[in-house]
Amino acid sequence: MNQIEVRIMGQSYLLANPDDGEHALREAVARVDEAMCSIRDAGKVKARERIAVLAALNLAYDLIQHESAPAPTPSPAAMDEGDPERAAQLIRRLDQALAGDGLLL
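^ that's the sequence the OP posted. Answer follows.
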């Protein structure tokens, strides 16, 4: 197993890379980076740890939704991860889910 260096939200990380898994690992890093940057760029959340939690919850929610029911083909606008309205909706949904958690930043 070798290591690769990646960047998530501008910060460097050295990750263990399973044999023949670099492409999948880099895809995962890209998705995490995109999710975190989208939340950060929406402007409501500044703390890196809270951004990471919100991004993780968003990605897990999307995975569960995908696994539980076949989703209709989204419109090209909905597929644009840089869509500010989509990011705002995700942040509102996650803030509602985390509203009672006083332990987060």
